[in-house]
Amino acid sequence: MSDKKIVVITGASKGIGRATAKLFLEKGCIVYALARSGCDLNGINSLICDVTDGTKLKKAIDSIYEAEKRIDILINNAGSGISGAVEKTVTADARRLFELNFFAPFEAIKYTIPYMRSLKSGRGINAGGKIINVGSIAGAMHIPFQAFYSASKAAVEALTNCLRGELAPFGIKLTTIMPGDTRTNFTDAREKDFVKEDPDYGERIYNSIKLMEEDERGGMPPEKVAQKIYKAACLKNPKPAYIVGFKYNFFAFLNKALPKRLVQWVLNSMYAK
């Protein structure tokens, strides 16, 4: 990646976001980290920002442009999860999840587009800018008792694909990064809208979440996802989506090749027993 690119990363205080910020910094980029709790990495421009607050988010993005006169790469990484049955999920919790997982990336993109559009006259692999949205394999393979997380990540992928067409004339390239299970603080931070012995669902939710969290804690390191994000940012024409992890690429292949009914039956057998 030539020259010093201006990179903006949301949710960069921990996990995938922090690993990504560290990698881009090591590669010689000027990195701005947006997070509610800030980012403690030396050399990072840390901005305290609740990305679900549109006014504060716009102010942060505007301030970056005012300081640097360009924004080359936007990485929408901030996100959260909810576990529980759809029937028992508190509506306010579901709305809050979509505010962070979907509407915050939408607004970050909305406020960044005018600045990236001005890059079209430039040359090189980043002329026009790159927008990278962190989705999830759960957006393609829908897990019981994770309905709102799966739905929000599916929505992020759909938004990315629609924008690829809308922004193509401006030279702005978009892609979705879809990690599988990753070892981060996301597991412990997930909201749980259920009790262990639910009067209607019994321990099915508890057992499902226990299995899923065991998978996450044994998952890939966040640095592996960061490497995929960086590689996508370096490509002249990135693909619409990249799945991170060999076995998750295999799962995605089966998801496309096999009947949907069979795929969902397998997922239900694993996570809804």
Please provide a written account of the structure:
By secondary structure, the chain is of the alpha/beta class. The protein has a single domain, classed as Rossmann fold. 48% of the residues lie in helices and 14% in strands. The protein has helices spanning 15-26, 54-68, 91-117, 147-167, 186-189, 204-217, 222-234, 246-257, 260-271, and strands at 6-10, 30-35, 45-48, 73-76, 82-83, 130-134, 173-179, 191-192, 241-244. Strands 3-2-1-4-6-7-9 form a 7-stranded parallel β-sheet, with helices on both faces. Strands 5-8 form a two-stranded parallel sheet. Helix 1 packs across helix 7 (222-234) and helix 3 packs parallel to helix 4.
Question: Could you provide a short overview of the structure?
Answer:
The protein is an alpha/beta fold. Helix content is 48%, strand content 14%. It has a single domain (6-271), classed as 3-Layer(aba) Sandwich (Rossmann fold), CATH 3.40.50.
Write the layout of secondary structure elements.
Elements: E1 6-10, H1 15-26, E2 30-35, E3 45-48, H2 54-68, E4 73-76, E5 82-83, H3 91-117, E6 130-134, H4 147-167, E7 173-179, H5 186-189, E8 191-192, H6 204-217, H7 222-234, E9 241-244, H8 246-257, H9 260-271
Helix pairs in contact: 1-7, 2-3, 3-4
